Amino acid sequence: MSSKKKMQHWRSVAAFLLIWDALTVVLAYFLAIWIRFDCSISSYLNHPYIVRTMMWFAPFYAAICLVVYSRCHLYRSIWRFASYDEMLRCILATAVTTVIHHTCVAILYSALGGPGRMPISYFVMGPIIQFFFTVSVRFSYRMIQLLKGKTSRSGSSREIMLIGAGSAGQMILRDINHTKENAERVVCIIDDNPNKWNRYIDGVPIVGGRDEIMNAVQKYNIKKIYLAIPTATAEQKRDILTICNETGCELKSLPGIYQLASGEVTVNRMRNVALEDLLGREPIRADMSEVFAFIHGKTVLVTGGGGSIGSELCRQIAAHEPRQLIIFDIYENNAYAIQLELKEKYPDLDLVTLIGSVRDSRKMFDLFEQYRPQVVYHAAAHKHVPLMEDSPCESIKNNALGTYKTAYAAMLHGCERFVLISTDKAVNPTNIMGASKRLCEMIIQTFDRKIKEGKADELPQLFTHEGVENADKDGTGAIFQDVHTEFVAVRFGNVLGSNGSVIPIFRKQIEKGGPVTVTHPDIIRYFMTIPEAVSLVMLAGTYAKGGEIFVLDMGSPVKIDTLARNLIRLNGYKPDVDIKIVYTGLRPGEKLYEEKLMAEEGLQKTDNDLIHIGKPVAFDTDQFLAQMNDLMISASKNKKDIKERVQAIVSTYHPADN
């Protein structure tokens, strides 16, 4: 029933336009001649040939116009959405009928024996008046709808500030204005180009640059801010969003230049501003083709594959056709979750999920013996600083000794690349977790050095139980003859949103209404996103020549206090007003700042400007290996002086005085 009504409605509109056009196309030329004779009917009637010509041709011209207008689809358009295309059709229809009219009238006037010619003003004014009648009735409906929309929105609308008066900003503005159901209204625009200040776009004033954001928010009672500058750098966006974040308004941002290029700039494409946007650093955009060519067709093992970094590694590896992907993790829930995800997304992937501990040398030997992984990403580790301070032996067992045992098994089973995931906490560590990761780096450097010197047989096989895992069973040392594994480490800072990071903790605290706990008002950290961290880890696997410590240039460090306050504002609250911030003091082993490199390490460039290589710090590898054996025994016996023993090995480790 409703569809029939709609059909009848458009037909009635078309019928009205037909009648209107039939009358007005004729009326237009009568008005033209009337104006020519000074708006005097008597003067017009004193020219019988002109009167006769117009009267004879009028009905034929009306019929001709209706045919031409119909061919130009002027009776089937939806005029509430009339735009540039409909205007062109009106111009074309008027032009065609004008040519027909002028030709026919000139011939008919001469045929009737009229003296001279028809007045020139008749031929000029007639088409103009006809075009006015044709366009006005059609576009007036659209104007009425726009005015009704503006009137309805003005009473209950949400005032919006638009940042960016470029192409993207104009598209967003028009999308808002042309959506009838939209209860939002752009009331002012911000742009840093002074040439645009005090001018208007669709009636909306451009009030100034970013310095005017705070004033404009108050003046126009802004509730929401749209950032529509897809070409801005990360640093520029950070500076603008930092100001916007102070206003307490809801923030939305256009993701990037892709939407502008593809014509997908609409309000629906705007996304909530994420915390990463406030870091002010361009994301790593590395050419990953070399990485994926390296992975393609290989058997890849990811230890700790259920964790934040490990699971993202698995996702990216699975997307690029490895021969086999092995997920190894001690926590079955995480391993099961990533297993289900990958099986659903990549049904043809040869996926193996194993549960076990990197501490178990027999388990690692069995794994490498059976599956022979060619590439290993070693992400398994204990990472929580305060918890490891309370259980330091566990940090050594899992991080240092687990790395050693996994590396040893990889070396003896034909692994091509072994990539250790390290942390900036390994630089001048003040906690046992950081010191254990520095031990991991030293293990990697020791393995690399011994292999390059052809002395792989000097690497002891560490285990606390004699048994089947003994590598050199025949005592000939033949197993060490063809060792070619390249060992590298990757060092980066905190990962946004990873398990145990501050962001999930802050979010939970905000959801509960606070307070948000920050250890110290001056504490700073380097941050990166999980995809960035993973791209760096994978790049290290291709850049590797052995023994390197890869370091990401993570830009400027961020104050955790600032991070917490920004997160509170992004959730629509005011720090210290709606959500309290409480300073709890530094935790055991925690320091105010983290470093990316030790003072002794220099930096070498790679093909990626954001990725550098730290020169290995020299140390006595033979002494180190002897100390590692003693450390293993002490950790297995849960010695209370384990920190002092680690300090004797890692000269840069200085336990914090808590």
Word description of this protein:
- It is a single chain.
- This protein has 21 helices and 22 strands.
- It is an alpha/beta fold and 658 residues long.
- It has three domains: 2-148, no CATH class; 157-273, Rossmann fold; 289-463 and 477-649, Rossmann fold (3-Layer(aba) Sandwich), CATH 3.40.50.
- The protein has a nine-stranded mixed beta sheet with strand order 10-9-8-11-12-13-18-22-21, sandwiched between helices.
- α16 links the parallel β12 and β13.
- The longest helix has 37 residues, at 120-156.
- The termini are far apart.
CATH architectural label of the largest domain: 3-Layer(aba) Sandwich
**Mean pLDDT over the full residue set:** 81
Overall strand count? 22
How would you classify the helix and strand content by structural class? alpha/beta
Characterize the main sheet.
9 strands, mixed
**CATH fold call of the largest domain:** Rossmann fold
CATH class of the largest domain: Alpha Beta
In DSSP terms (H or I, runs of 4 or more residues), the helix count works out at: 21
Helical amount = 40-55%
